[in-house]
Amino acid sequence: MSNLTLIVCLLVVMAMAYQLGMVRSRKVATINPVQRMHSRPQHYGMMVALWAVLPAFFILVIWNLLAPDVIAALVQQSLPPEIQSQDAQAVAVTLRRIANLAANFGIVAEAADWELAAAAYMQQLQHSSGLMLTALMAAIAAAGLTFSYFKIAPQRRARHQVERVVKAVLVICSTIAILTTIGIVLSMVTETLKFFSFIKPTDFFFGTTWNPRFSTTGATDQGSFGLLPLLSGTMMIAVIALLVAIPLGLMVAIYLAEYAPAKLRNTVKPVIEVLAGIPTIVYGFFALVTVGPFLSDLGQTLGLTIRATSALTAGVVMGIMIIPFISSLSDDIITQVPKALRDGSLGLGATKSETIRKVVLPAALPGIVGAVLLAASRAIGETMIVVLAAGNAPALTANPFEAVSTVTVTIVNQLTGDNDFASPQSLVAFALGLTLFVITLLLNIIALVIVRKYREQYE
Amino acid sequence: MTVAETEKKPLPAPSKVQQKVQQSLARRQRQEKLFRGVGISAVACSLLLVALLFINIFSKGLPAFWQATITLDIYFDPAIVKIPEQPVQGAEESDNDFRERDLAWRSAVGMVNYNRLIQAGLEKVIPDALQHRRDLARIVTSGERFALRDLVIADPTLVGQTKTLHLLTDANIDVWLKGNIDRSLPDAQQQLSAKVREWVDQLAAEGVIQNRFSFALFMNPDSRSSLASAGLAGAFMGSLYMMLVVILLAVPMGVAAAIYLEEFAPKNKLTDLVEVNINNLAAVPSIVFGLLGAAVFIGWFNLPMSAPVVGGLVLSLMTLPTVIIATRSTLKAIPPSIRQAALGLGASKMQAIFHHVLPLAIPGILTGAIIGVAQALGETAPLLLIGMKSFVASVPAGPFEQSTALPVQIYLWQGNELRNFFEARTSAAIIVLLALMLSLNALAIWLRKKYEKRW
Fold it and tell me: Which ranges does the record mark as transmembrane (chain A) (predicted)?
C-alpha cells in the first residue's frame, strides 16, 4: 500500500477510535455514579485516538526512512561478487539502474540478466516490505486502541495526556523556525566549504576580477572568482536606492505624522504601502521598459551617456520600492516620541518645523537609523530588479551610469546556467549566498538592537 | 493684574533680543512653509510614483487582453480529414484494450493536416491567395491547428460540415495592426512580407480580422512555436499548487508556533533566541531561501526539480515568520481578562486558549495568513533557483509535475525576442498577478475591518 493510503487509513482509524473512546467513557461514567470522571468524554475519545494512531504513525515514518537503505543493502549483497568489488560510485550507479528497472522505468542500454534478477529481487523485497509495514502498523494501532480503551476509568487523566501531546506538537512547530535557520547555515556552509576546496578564500574575498569560465573548459583553468566587483555593484545600487528613498520616505513620514489631518493620513498611508506589496519582478519590468529608457533619454539631453540598464536605473527603482519601508517604520518611530518633548519646544516659541527638526528628529534618530538599516538590508538582498535592470556587467566601476552586477544577480546566473552542480561555477553561488546572509544578518541585528534600545528609552 | 490693565499699560520699548526675534519671524515662517511644502511634495511625489507605475503597466497591458482574431468559415473537408470512426468500448473489451484503441484513434486524428483546412478558409476571403501560398501560411498562428484537432476530437460529426471559427492571427500581425511596429520601416526590417501586410490591412478594413477578447491568454499554457497563443494557464496552476502547499504548511505551523511562543513558552534564554531568530528570518533575502531549497530539498532530499511542491516548501519556509509574527501580535492584543475568566471557571490553560482566545484571534490570524500568502504569490527569485524557470508547454496535472509560476512566467516573457508583442503580453500577465494579489490584500483588509475589535 502506498504511504498516502496508509495515512488515509490511519485517519479513518483515528475517527473510529475517537468515537469508541467517547462512547466507552460515557458508559464508564454511568457505571460509576459515585466517582466523577476526571476529564470530559471528548478527552477520552481523543486519548484513545492518539494511542491508536501516533505509535503507528511513528512506525510509518521510521520505516520510510530506513527501508530503502535496508533494501538497497540486501540487493547489493545479492549482486555478483565482481560487481560488488567495484568502487563505491560504480556500485551506486548500478543500484540506481536496478531501482529504475524495479520501478518499470526505462534505462539506458540493454539490461543484463543479473540486473534483471536483482531488479526482480528488489521488487519482491519492496513488496514484502510494504506488507510487513501494513501488518505492523495494523497490529500496533490495534494494540494501542485496545490498551487505551480498557484504561478508560474515572481516575484516568485523559485531558492531561491529550494536552501534553498538543503541547508537544506546538513545540515542534515552533522549532521549525530554528531548524530553517540551521538548515540555511548548514547547507550554505557545507557547499561553501566545497567551493573553498577549489578556490582559496583569499582569492574569493579579495579578488578584483569576476570571470568564472564554464566548467567544461577543464579543471586546470578555473577562472577567477573575485567577490569585490559584485560587492561594489551591490553597494552602489543600495546607496543609490537609499539616496532616493531616505529623503522621500522620511519627509512622507514626517508630513503624515505631524502635519496631515487624520483623513488624509488614513488614505495616503495604505496607498503608499501598496508599493511594498507589489512583487519585485513588476518593479524589474518597470525599470527595464520604462525607467531605463527614460533615464537614458534624459542623459542624452544632458549630454551624459547613461546606459538603459545601469546601476542608476536599478537603484532608482529599488529606491521607489523601499520608500514604504522607511516611511512606515519612521512614522511609527516619530509618533512614539513623547508629546511632552514637542509641547516643551512649542511652548518656548519654536515653530512646528523647528520643533520637528531640532527636537523630534534628534530624539527619533536612533530609530530612524534602525529603519534605514533594515531598508538597506532589503536593498542588498533584492534580486529581481537587479536581474532585469542592472545590466549584469561584473566590473569594478565607480560610474553609476554603467552596467554593474550584484551578488544576487550572480547567484541566479550561476545556479540557473548549464553548470554541473558540483563544479566551482555552481558552488560559488552558495559562497555568495553565505556572504549575503551574513551581511544582511548583521545589518538586521544592529537595526533590531537600535530599535529596541530606542523603544526602551521612551517606554 | 487683569486683562484690562495689561492692555492699558504702554508697551515697553522692544529690547534688542525682541527686535532680533521680530526680524527673524518672517524668515522662520517662510522656513515653516517651505518645510511643510517639502513634506506635501514628498507625499505627492510618492503618490505620483504609485500612479505612474500602475498607469504604465495598465496602459501597456490592457490592449494585450484583446488580440487580432480572424473569423473564417472552416469546411471540415472529408477529403482532408480522413479519420477512422471513433472507437466505442465493446462489452467484453477490457479497459486497457479500449484505451489503446482510443489512443490510436486520437493520434490518427492528430495526423490530419489541419493547416490545409485553414488555408482553404483563407482562400475564401483573400482573392489572390493561390498565387502566394507561402504568405498564406503566415496569417493564422500555428497553434490554432491544435484547436481544430480538439474540435474534431470533441465532436467527430463535424467532418463534412462548415463552421465559423475565430482563430488567432500570428503575433506579428497583432503587432502590425496595433501599430506597435513602425509602419514606415523598409521591407528588410519588417517581420511580415509586403503581401501579408497588404492582405491584413484589407481584412482588418473588411472586419474579417478584429480585435477580440483573448481567451487564449487564460486558457493556454506557454508556447514558443505559436507565440500568439501563449497563455498563463500553466503558470497559474503552478502558482495555485504552490499556494495550496503554503496554506497547508505555513499557516497551521505558523499559528501553532505563535501559540506556543506567546502563551506557553517560559521566558528564558532559549525562547529569546527563538524570537530573535524569527525576526531575523523574516528579513533574510528571499534568494537565500532559494539556495536553501536548491541545496536541501533538491540536493539532499532528491525532490524533483521545477515541481510546485518544492516551490511551495521553499515559499512556506519564507512565509512562516510572517504568519508567526502576525499571529503573535494578534494574540498579544487579546486582553488577559479573557484568559483569566476562563481559568477562573476551571478551564485548563489549553482549554482557555483553544476555546476562548483562539476564536477571538481568528480574524487577525486570517489577515496575517492572507498577507503572507499574497507575498509568497509574488515571489520570483527563490523559484528561479529550484529550476522553475524552465519552459513548460503543458498545464501541470499535479504538484509533482514540472511547472512554472505566474511571476516566473512574467520573467520568462519579458525576455522573449519578439519584444513588440511580449512587452504588452508581459504587462497583461503582470495585471493578472497584481489583480490576484490586490484582491487577496483587499480581502485581508475587509476581514480586518469587519471583525476588528478594540478592547
Answer: 6-23, 44-66, 131-153, 165-189, 235-259, 271-292, 304-326, 359-380, 427-451
CB B376 within 8 A of CB B435: no
pLDDT of residue B302: 78
CATH of domain A224-458: 1.10.3720.10
Contact assignment for B42 to A255 by CB distance below 8 Å = yes
The model's confidence at residue A214, banded by pLDDT at 50, 70 and 90, is low
User: Where are the domains positioned within chain A?
Assistant: 3-156, 224-458
| Class at the top of the CATH hierarchy for domain B233-451 | mainly alpha
Chain A partners within 8 Å of B376 (Cβ): none
Q: pTM, whole model, 2 decimals?
A: 0.86
B144 compared with A282, residue with greater pLDDT: A282
Instruction: Quote the CA–CA distance of A99 and A118 in Å, as a whole number.
Output: 9
User: How far off is chain B from A139, nearest CA to CA, in Å?
Assistant: 30
Q: With beta carbons less than 8 A apart as the criterion, state whether A413 and A438 touch.
A: no
For B139-178, write each residue's pLDDT tens digit. 888 888 888 888 888 888 888 888 888 888 888 888 888 8
> Which residues have C-beta within 8 Å of that of residue B304, sequence separation ≥ 6?
B310, B400, B402
Does B321 have pLDDT greater than 60? yes
The shortest CB-CB distance from B46 to any of A272, A383, A445 is to A272
Cell 514540472, located at residue: B402
Residues of A in contact with B355 (CB under 8 A): none
End-to-end, the C-alpha distance of chain A in Å comes to: 61
CB burial of residue A17 (10 Å; 0-12, 13-18, 19+)? buried
From the CA of A118, how many Å to the nearest CA of chain B?
Answer: 23
Q: What is the three-class DSSP state of A414?
A: helix
Angle at CA of residue A85, ends A82 and A90, nearest 5°: 100
Strand partners, A424: none
d(CA B36, CA B414): 41
Q: What is the ipTM of this complex?
A: 0.87
Which H or E element spans position B452? none
H/E stretch holding B392: none
Using a CB-CB distance cutoff of 8 angstroms, which residues of chain A are in contact with residue B283?
A: 374, 377-378, 440, 444
Length of chain B: 455
pLDDT: which is higher, B374 or B271: B374
Domain limits, chain B: 68-214, 233-451
In A307-377 the beta strands, taken as DSSP E runs, fall at: none
